[in-house]
Design a protein that fits this description.
6-stranded mixed beta sheet
C-alpha cells in the first residue's frame, strides 16, 4: 500500500510537470538551424537551460540571416498540435516549418521560455538591435535593409481555444509573408511560448471561499447550535462513567476489614 501511494504521487508529480511545459519550434528556409545538434539528453528541459539549448540549435552562420524572428505564443503546449478540434489552428505554422530546409523542435520546456533573454543573446552575438513588431499590422516596409540581421520579437495574444489560435496562426502567416516579400527566404524563426498553461490545481487554489454573512439580533440558541447529537452522546458517556466510578468507589469504601486478628484460646 505504501509503495502504491508513492507511485501514485510520482505519477501525479510527473503529470503536473508535463502540464506546465511549452514547446519550441525552430525552422529556416536556409540552413540557419542546426539539425545535427541534439537539443538535450533530458526529455524535459528546465527553463534555465532553455536559452542555451535554443542557442546551440542555431547554426554558426545565423547572423547571416536578414531576419531572426522570435514568435511568442503564450500558454502553448505540445498537446495543442494534436488535440481534437485544433486541426486547423496551426495551418501556417505546420506548412512553413515542415517545408523548411532546416528544422528543429524541443517538445517540453518547463514554465516557458525567456524570449527576451534569447533575443538579447542573438542581438549581442550578431551586433544588432531588437525590434518588437505587431504581426497583425506588419508589412514589408517595416523591415529596413541593413548589414546586421533584424532580431524581431513578435508577441501573439494569449489563446486557449481553437478560434483564437487560428487567428494567431493567420497573423503568423501574414508576418512570414511580409518577411518573404522583403528578403525572400533569408530568415529564421523561433516559435515558442514565454508562459506555460495554468494547471487546474493552481486555478482551484486561487479561488477564495466566501464566508457566510454574519447574523445579528438573534437569540443565542438560534445563533449558535449549542446542543447537537454529538454533545448529547458525550454527556451520556460522561454520566455513565461517573455512575460506574461512583458505584465502584462506594463498594470499595464499604468493604470492612478486621482491625486485628484475635489469638487462639489455649486449651487447659
Amino acid at each position: 500500500m505504501k509503495y502504491t501511494a508513492v507511485a501514485l504521487l510520482s505519477l501525479a508529480s510527473a503529470a503536473m510537470a508535463f502540464e506546465s511545459t511549452v514547446p519550441c519550434i525552430m525552422w529556416s528556409p536556409k540552413n540557419y538551424v542546426d539539425t545535427n545538434v541534439k537539443a538535450s539528453d533530458q526529455f524535459v528541459i528546465s527553463q534555465t537551460d532553455a536559452s542555451s539549448t535554443i542557442m546551440s540549435s542555431l547554426s554558426s552562420d545565423i547572423c547571416s540571416a536578414k531576419v531572426i524572428a522570435l514568435i511568442n505564443q503564450p500558454e502553448l503546449h505540445s498537446n495543442d498540435f494534436t488535440r481534437s478540434g485544433f486541426e486547423d489552428a496551426f495551418t501556417q505554422l505546420k506548412e512553413h516549418s515542415t517545408q523548411a530546409s532546416s528544422h528543429s523542435q524541443i517538445e517540453y520546456i518547463t514554465n516557458g521560455v525567456d524570449v527576451n533573454e534569447i533575443a538579447k543573446m542573438i542581438a549581442s552575438q550578431c551586433d544588432s538591435a531588437i525590434s518588437i513588431l505587431d504581426p497583425s499590422t506588419v508589412s514589408a516596409d517595416d523591415f529596413a535593409k541593413q548589414e546586421a540581421p533584424i532580431v524581431a520579437v513578435v508577441p501573439l495574444p494569449a489563446a486557449n481555444d481553437a478560434t483564437k489560435l487560428k487567428a494567431n496562426d493567420a497573423s503568423l502567416g501574414q508576418f512570414i509573408d511580409a518577411v518573404e516579400g522583403k528578403f525572400q527566404n533569408d530568415y529564421a524563426v523561433i516559435y515558442t511560448s514565454s508562459v506555460a498553461k495554468t494547471s487546474c490545481h493552481e486555478s482551484t487554489q486561487s479561488l477564495h471561499r466566501r464566508a457566510p454573512a454574519p447574523v445579528n439580533n438573534l437569540p443565542i440558541f438560534a445563533k449558535y447550535q449549542l446542543f447537537t447529537p454529538g454533545v448529547f452522546m458525550v454527556l451520556g458517556v460522561v454520566f455513565l462513567f461517573m455512575f460506574i466510578a461512583g458505584t465502584g468507589i462506594t463498594w470499595l469504601v464499604g468493604i470492612q476489614t478486621p482491625v486485628r486478628f484475635e489469638a487462639k484460646q489455649k486449651k487447659n
